[in-house]
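Structure (tokenized):
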């Protein structure tokens, strides 16, 4: 199992230069975990795509359903105390620290493309491209 942030989930479902890497990560480890927050963040990404005319509402609903399916059973609540302590000790947002907190709780790596997370939490996080090439 790995913890993935919302960007990695998005790359899997929304075509980008990192989509192939996200697909390889899923093949390498198909058990993806994330804090429940991923849902709100991913809905916001889909709304951005809707507003830009890149997808329509039916596409957005389908994509979200597919993402829910892959994440089913591996969505977790995280403790506010842990998130706030992590965010207070580093220069990352509380949102980012939810993913970090979950990685620490599960003792699993956080796969991300967020340089700030990698820099602030190198002991628990790994770049998506490094994960798929190891």
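Design, position by position:
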């Amino acid at each position: 199992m790995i913890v993935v942030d919302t960007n990695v989930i998005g790359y899997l479902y929304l075509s980008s230069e990192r989509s192939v890497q996200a697909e390889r990560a899923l093949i390498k480890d198909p058990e993806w975990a994330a804090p429940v927050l991923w849902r709100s963040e991913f809905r916001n990404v889909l709304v951005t795509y809707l507003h830009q005319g890149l997808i329509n509402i039916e596409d957005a609903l389908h994509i979200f359903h597919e993402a829910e399916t892959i994440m089913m059973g591996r969505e977790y609540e995280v403790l506010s105390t842990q998130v706030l302590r992590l965010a207070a000790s580093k220069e990352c947002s509380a949102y980012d620290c939810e993913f970090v907190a979950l990685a620490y709780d599960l003792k699993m790596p956080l796969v991300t493309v967020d340089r700030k997370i990698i820099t602030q939490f190198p002991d628990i996080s790994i770049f998506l491209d490094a994960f798929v090439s190891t």
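Reviewer-requested clarification: The mean pLDDT is 97. The radius of gyration is 14 Å.
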